Amino acid sequence: MRGVRLVWLVVLYSSVCCSAQTAEELVSKNIQAKGGIDKIKAVNTVAMNGKIYVQGITAEISQEQKRPNMLRQNFTVQGMTQVQAYDGTTAWQIQPFNGRKDPELMGEDEARGLIEQADIDGPLVDYASKGNKVEYLGHDTVDGDDAYKLKVTLKNGDIIYYYLDPDTYLEVKTEKQEFIRGNVRETEQELGSYKQVAGVYYPYSLEGGTKGNPGDHVRITMDKIEVNVPIDDSLFKMPVKK
Question: What's the pTM value of the predicted model, to 2 decimals?
Answer without folding.
Answer: 0.86
